[in-house]
Specification:
The protein is α+β, with helices and mostly antiparallel strands. It is built from 4 helices and 8 strands; from the N terminus they run E-H-H-E-E-E-E-E-E-H-H-E. It is elongated, with a radius of gyration of 20 Å. The chain starts with a strand and ends with a strand.
Length: 152
Amino acid sequence: MYRVSSNSTVFFKLFIPTVWFVFFSTFTVSLFLASDEQLPFLTSPVFKYPFLAAFLIIFALLYFTLMSLKRVEMGDEAYIVTNYLKAYRLIYDDIEKITIIPLFRLQIVIFRLRAKSSFGKKIVFLASKFLYDHFMQTHPAVASKLAEKTNK
């Protein structure tokens, strides 16, 4: 198996959401627990409730984007998808469509599956352009199989 996911996946999937959630959830809780005398401006409802709404919106945005990233390793017969807790081996024939979105030296790759897997119908990962292209060049059988499904 060859890793095609970028090392940045750990940073974007685990580090950023964890640090963001710990800091802003602590700040949000302190807004609601602090008295008006301690923090007169920050504890007013004009600041508290929009901040809470923004916190929830950004949390949902992080949850559905960064936290849904997976780590992918590809082989000759199948590929392995993991969320760093569970790993599943899937076959290439289950892929219905592949979308590649370039981002400088990285690329977002989306595998849309024919049927629902343990991670859902869509597998999103942050691929290293070098590792992904190198794998496709060294494994022409897999590359030709996936080329017909690719939608750039």
